Known about the structure:
heterodimer; A: 112 residues; mainly beta; 7-stranded mixed sheet; 4-stranded antiparallel sheet; 55% strand; B: 113 residues; 0% helix
Amino acid sequence: DTAVSQTPKYLVTQMGNDKSIKCEQNLGHDTMYWYKQDSKKFLKIMFSYNNKELIINETVPNRFSPKSPDKAHLNLHINSLELGDSAVYFCASSPNSGRELFFGEGSRLTVL
Amino acid sequence: GENVEQHPSTLSVQEGDSAVIKCTYSDSASNYFPWYKQELGKRPQLIIDIRSNVGEKKDQRIAVTLNKTAKHFSLHITETQPEDSAVYFCAASEGGGADGLTFGKGTHLIIQP
């Protein structure tokens, strides 16, 4: 019973391509997030999404766009991929008024 | 915005010894301080957290201390075991919860047999 699941787990693509990573949570949580973990293991928030309110980290390029078809899903779409986008992307969720982040297993994106 | 500094970046200890990881934060409004553990190739998982109205919290071999005046908090692991080897992240937020968390850069803890 995977609580937060992401697909694909690995993604290798060429510069300039567009790709998406999907995330689903079956915990009934109200808030979902995308985090980026670079090669130095630094974890940085990209987006949080709660009840159709999107909070964007202003350092995230507008090539990155989150899309939430419903409360249980938050997908990440990336346009015009660049070498620097190579990283592990973690989806996470938390309940309203909750403290714990429940992370997915991560999606390792490699841009060649 | 919040800035969280974490030290050391790598810590190697003998099995059975204690390990201490330290973090400082910049925003005096921060009131929630969790610690996450990430084993190699796995997802980060919450291991312990503390709120600003508490100075210390313990859970078996792990403990966290908070000094609000100095704006620093620490993770203490006693009687370290091989399964403690991982990257540990501290974090801080002013919302009291998972929203708005700023993470430190992580400490790679290595337990030597």
